[in-house]
Amino acid sequence: MHSAIICVALPGLAISTDQGQLTGQGLEGFYRTGRRVLSRCQVRVAGREPLAVQAWATAADRARFVATLRVSPGGGPDPDVVVERTRHADGTECITLHSAVSRPLRLPVEVTLGTDLADLGAIASGRAGPDLPASVYDSGLRWSCAAGGASVTADPPPADALASAGLLRWEFDLPPGGTAGLELRVRMDWSGSGRAAGRAATSPLAPARATGDHPGVELLLRTSIDDLQSLLLRDPAHPTDTHIAAGVPWRCGLAPADALVAARMALALGTRLAAGTLRTLARTQLRGPTAQSGMIPGPRRDAGAHLPAGCTGTEATLLFPVLLAEAYRWGLSRQETEGLLPTAERCLGWLRAAVGEGTYLCDPQPGGPVRCETQAHAHRAAVLGADLLDAFDRPGGAVLRHWARELRTAFREDFWVEDRSGGRPAAGRASDGRLVSHLGATAAHLLDTGLLSGGEQAPGLLDRVQTEQLARLLGGPAMDSGWGLRGLGAKEAGYNPFGHRTGAVRVHETAVAVAGLAAAGYEKEAGSLLRGQLAAAEAFGYRLPEMFAGQQRTEGSPPLPHPAACRPAATAAAAGVLLLTTLAGIRPDAPAGTVALRPVRSAPLGEIGLTGLRIAGEPFSVRVSRLGLAMVEEAAEGLQLGS
């Protein structure tokens, strides 16, 4: 799918090749809520297929295809007609004919349509059925199955419609140099599980912009926001709440952990997405007198060859109080925060109950291994959760802090593998007590400690010496591929550059590493990973996939796509926002009316300006000079610059 042209504005989706014609092969077609509503849309002009010359995405939700045609007999090699097709994810296609000759043309146009009304999962696994028979409907065609139906209407109406062949016909008269066109609109006749979140004024994402010495910063931020916008969904039962779908084409629905991660990385664009995501997931929280009470459910996730599958529900449950605490610091109102606080308290209660009398949190529960990144998530949830509880005079903060201190002490001893190079954090501890000592990108989560009130960095699980050693390892050639952070070190057993947990570069984890390294003061390593990720973004047209191959970067060779990667993907798009805002080191405390700046002093991308961000619901703009000095250019009235 890495070579496909994907237009997305969920729940609408269009997948095409660079030829423009939809032939029904593979995943080609228009989709709505995961079901293919049109698989074939083939255009013939004067009895011939136009010759494709160029195709490109003009935005996240639309693409343009240009083809040419010769219709004059004996007219030489030059094309007479240019055929342009603009395809929208919402199910609209505009076909325009441009005459390039100095005489009138009469052009018969035929569009062949068809669909199987299959769901995307069946199509991807080769289980889609044959095309369904069509019937003439209104000014187009219609198809039906037991679950519902789909239709295509045309404007202007066709001169002829042949249902048995799925064919619509027109005759267009073009004056010299003239233009004619038609529009097709695809509709489905049953409701889906989600509703498009809409754009422009209804968007929960601020239209931020970036400028600077590096030409890629503007394109990366613009594309990241556009991709996030295209993945937004609303729950029809609660239309004011938006959340992000995990990615296209494989995960077009809500994945709790991914949605929370994306909303957290995009907090600089405002708190509305965070609030909608938190409210949506609060309604899924498990209740009742069971061991799972307080948990946000989520599916299992493969963890590679070294550890069994983990539970994304564990990650989501620990992320919920973290996102709420940080959203409150970015400007989520006290009233909204209080409304979500009971759900966060139940998440923290689940954490304490799952740990019990022990020190570590197993994942999955019960009896699973003790994972390094799970302890990082749990520790951050406890520390930030305690800070949030104190801010609202709720009990429980002292107990969480006490457990977090015990976890820090034990982790620094139990999870550090000593070796001649200075040691490394273990990836996990198996249920039999054996340390799993491979070095992977999940160790970057140890650097992601979060922010407390006052903009202070929360304590981490590692001590100063261990943090310095981890920074050195993440910045070394075994982990830094030159394009980003490998999922598994190149020298580790089982390394596979295409392994989605054993060597591929996962964009989200690279962004976490860059932000964590910069916050800890390791700017050289952070800058190297940042520049590599920006170079990869350029190679992918600034629409970063969720992952790509972790092969070593060499001169003249682009990064290799991963065949199973979503693109766009929620966490990858939000990572673009985090990568750029990290350079300014913005540390807000909206309840206290302050914001501190801790810019990356080495200015790895030169001067950069970020405008249209949001703190306390108001525009916030900042510029970082080539000397690494930050200056606020716009802020909410009354917001003071902290130390």
Describe what you observe in this structure.
An 8-stranded antiparallel sheet has the order 7-8-9-10-17-14-13-12, with no helix packed on it. Helix 3 runs antiparallel to helix 4 and helix 10 runs antiparallel to helix 11. It contains 12 helices and 36 strands. A hairpin with a 2-residue loop joins strand 20 and strand 21. The protein is elongated and about 85 Å long. It starts with a strand and ends with a strand.
By CATH, the architecture of the largest domain is named: Alpha/alpha barrel
Globular, elongated, flat, extended or rod-shaped: what is the shape? elongated
* Helical content class: 25-40%
Query: If you consult CATH, what is the topology of the largest domain?
Result: Glycosyltransferase
CATH class label of the largest domain: Mainly Alpha
- Give the CA-CA distance, first to last residue: 48 Å
Treating each run of at least 4 consecutive H or I residues as one helix, how many helices? 12
Strand order of the largest sheet: 7-8-9-10-17-14-13-12
Structural class: alpha+beta
Sheet of most strands: 8 strands, antiparallel
CA gyration radius, whole angstroms: 27 Å
State the domain count: 2
Q: Strand share of the residues? A: 25-35%
Number of strands: 36
Mean pLDDT: 93
Low-confidence stretches: 191-201
